[in-house]
Amino acid sequence: MIPLLVFLSLAGTALGLPNCDAEPLQLPLQDVQVLSDKKDSFMRGIPAQIGRPVQNIVLLPWAELNNTWIYDSEAYCDKTIIWNDNICRVRRGNLLKEEESTTYIKANNIGAAGGAPTETYWDGSELGLKSLASSGLGGTDNFQVNGTQVLTGFPFGIPRLSWDHGYTMLHPLGLGSNSTYLNALRDAGQLSSRIWSLFWGRMWVDEPVDGSLVLGGYDENKVIGQNYTAPLNFGDFKGSSGCWTGMKVTISDIKLNFRDGRDKSLFPPNTALSCCLVPQRQLLLEAPFSYLETFENITQTSPFDSPSYGLHWSAQLFDAKTAFDGDITFSLSSGLEIRVPNSQYMPPFVDIERNGSRIFKNETRELLINGVDNQPATLGRYFFTSAYLMVDHDAGTFTLWKANPSKTSKLVKVTDLKTSTQCTNNPAATEQPTEEAAAQPRASGAVIGGSVAGGVVGLALIVLAVFFFLRHKQRSNNVEDASRAESLGHSPGGYKSPVYAQAAKDNWQRGSYHVPQELPGSNPVPFEFEGSTQSVYEMGDGQRK
Ligand SMILES: *[C@@H]1O[C@H](CO)[C@@H](O)[C@H](O)[C@H]1NC(C)=O
Ligand SMILES: *[C@@H]1O[C@H](CO)[C@@H](O)[C@H](O)[C@H]1NC(C)=O
Ligand SMILES: *[C@@H]1O[C@H](CO)[C@@H](O)[C@H](O)[C@H]1NC(C)=O
Ligand SMILES: *[C@@H]1O[C@H](CO)[C@@H](O)[C@H](O)[C@H]1NC(C)=O
Ligand SMILES: *[C@@H]1O[C@H](CO)[C@@H](O)[C@H](O)[C@H]1NC(C)=O
Ligand SMILES: *[C@@H]1O[C@H](CO)[C@@H](O)[C@H](O)[C@H]1NC(C)=O
Ligand SMILES: *[C@@H]1O[C@H](CO)[C@@H](O)[C@H](O)[C@H]1NC(C)=O
Fold first, then answer.
1. Peptide bond into 18 cis (omega under 30)
2. pLDDT tens per residue, range 260-302
3. pLDDT at res. 254
4. Where do the record's region annotations for Disordered lie (predicted)?
5. Which helix (H) or strand (E) holds 425?
6. CA-based, 20 to 30 A from 463: which of 1, 406, 416, 539?
7. C-alpha 509 – ligand 5 centre gap (Å)
8. Architecture of 22-191 per CATH?
9. How far is the CA of 13 from the centre of ligand 1 (A)?
10. CA-closest candidate to residue 351, choices 537, 82, 95, 35
């Protein structure tokens, strides 16, 4: 087996051609038991093996990184919310022991290991990205994801920097435009195109549905209706049509769908919100603070505690008995409407206990929305419980559909124009791309491409104005109120509900305030917050403004 793989790998690299016969691969996004001796030490991600003898790890698909990063014993978990090594090991999806792998070869850094020498930083991304590659270690080893081909000598980085602040967790599987993983699979003849597609699945319900990452195509059974395609545009969020993930959309409305059929908009009239799709982020939505305040006003509910420090770090905590029980619908300017059911954005509080078990507090619901100040708005992984995403690096496009939460799969191979030309000219190629697939980036590229281009200038102006207004307002309103209560414990979130802040202050003055969560033992280093998650990303770099 190994010599054949090596041959394929060399042949692919030498020819620089895709294997036009390769069928799409499917990698499950599912609950994976992290500690072999703890049955309920679950994290949701992609199971993978590294080294020889193999070590089991769990990966998180990461949209913009080119390299894959594997944490070892220096795992940079945030000690103020992750209280022991057990919790850290589970939340990171197990830790690599390089010294125990006979096939591991150390390199000075990720570039020397054969990976991408830099990880580009764009506005909005984790600030620590700027020096992740230059500070990190590198190495190569056998790498195998969910039983697909063993990639021998696969280059990966080992972080030596607390670059992500620890809450995004799991080892990032880089799926960026020059992804070492996608390139390696293509060079090994396993992929005919560098396309990846993602459905996060449905969790926290009686009948959970696993998600999946499909490579080289998409899962037809998991999509409904028309597709919407737009160009990938990498860049800074501000002043450009780009995003650090390459995927910018414009939200024209967000409606709360009450059980009695009423719909109420979270949007101020005549606004639009530019937003980056960031499937690795742990929530549904990060949006200006006013959206959370409007949520409280419309639903007549308020968080009863400071934001979550659990797996849904920075979510808002509500009492399950009175929490809003309706759905939420996003209207994108392209015409796509995505309705996220209540169960997928108001799940029970979930965390990893000291003993490594995943535990729920079902009497508490987490609203998976956080406020941001002057950071870009994002749609995170829970958007992909209800939307299906396909990214095509060769065609430079991304495509969205409504997701169909089906347990069945029907993988469809997609080959872009460039690859299909290569395949046509390649005498070894036997299979031609279907007309449908080849037509797809052209035909539907117009669909949201047009509306994005048309709307972007006007909307950008409105959005900028809204941002500056809110930033100003936020600074003056919320920051001071809650600070006293928070200095008692760790408040990982940016949003401070005015109602909760007032209640906490009153309780404090009456002497009845008590910290509902366990404190981190002997050194309760309080977080400092500036009223936005921005400060958090900056802390990841170890250099606060
Ligand atoms: C992509 O990454 C490889 C290393 O993995 C590097 O050799 C190559 O130059 C990169 N391509 C581009 C376009 O930067
Ligand atoms: C990925 O590699 C491409 C090609 O070299 C580069 O343009 C891009 O900036 C890289 N992305 C990141 C996040 O480093
Ligand atoms: C990968 O995981 C999926 C879902 O669990 C499974 O159906 C499939 O057979 C696996 N593929 C391989 C090659 O192991
Ligand atoms: C709490 O919620 C989780 C996730 O939905 C579920 O698996 C569990 O059975 C619930 N526990 C109780 C006691 O209802
Ligand atoms: C929420 O309601 C309060 C009280 O009516 C009001 O002062 C505030 O402006 C409202 N907030 C938003 C964002 O609508
Ligand atoms: C871990 O601790 C939690 C909370 O104390 C408990 O419910 C759970 O049963 C424990 N798990 C194991 C495997 O002991
Ligand atoms: C996307 O939509 C276009 C135009 O409606 C259609 O021709 C194409 O087949 C669709 N592509 C996929 C991958 O479903």
1. no
2. 999 999 998 889 999 999 999 999 999 999 999 999 999 999 9
3. 98
4. 511-545
5. helix 417-425
6. 539
7. 25
8. Beta Barrel (2.40)
9. 12
10. 82
Closest CA to 170 of 65, 94, 118, 110: 94
* Residues facing residue 151 across a β-bridge: 143
pTM value is 0.82
Tokens 């490594």 map to which residue? 356
Helix (H) / strand (E) element for 207: namely none
Average pLDDT over residues 182-203: 94
Q: Are 145 and 46 in contact (CB under 8 A)?
A: yes
pLDDT in tens, 456-485: 333 443 443 433 333 333 333 333 222 222
What are the pLDDT digits (tens) for 488-540?
A: 222 334 567 776 666 665 554 443 333 333 333 222 222 222 222 322 222 22
Alpha-carbon gap, residue 289 to 221, rounded angstroms: 37
Cα-Cα-Cα-Cα dihedral sign, residues 423, 425, 430, 435: positive
d(CA 219, CA 194): 15
Residue 440, phi then psi, degrees to nearest 5: -55, -50
Q: Terminus-to-terminus CA distance in the chain, angstroms?
A: 53
Q: Cα(42) to centroid of ligand 6, in Å?
A: 13
DSSP 8-class letter at 471: H
> From CA 134, how far away is CA 159, in angstroms rounded?
10
The two three-digit tokens of residue 521, written as one number: 């033992």
- The CB of 49 under 6 Å from ligand 3? The reply is no
C-alpha torsion 424→427→430→432, nearest 10: 0
Q: Give domain 200-403's CATH architecture.
A: Beta Barrel (2.40)
Of 187 and 534, the one with more pLDDT: 187
Tell me the CA–centroid distance for residue 34 and ligand 6, in Å: 15
Domain extents for the chain? 22-191, 200-403, 415-514
Residue 73 tokens, joined:
């014993």
Measured by CA distance, the residue closest to atom 3 of ligand 7 is 444
Calpha distance 509→424 (Å, rounded)? 76
Distance CA 85, CA 283 (A): 24
Half-sphere exposure for 434 (CA within 13 Å, toward CB): 7
Q: 247, 188, 212: which is closest to 391 by C-alpha?
A: 247
Q: What distance in Å separates the CA atoms of residue 70 and residue 145, rounded to the nearest whole number?
A: 13
Ligand 4: residue whose CA is nearest its atom 4: 204
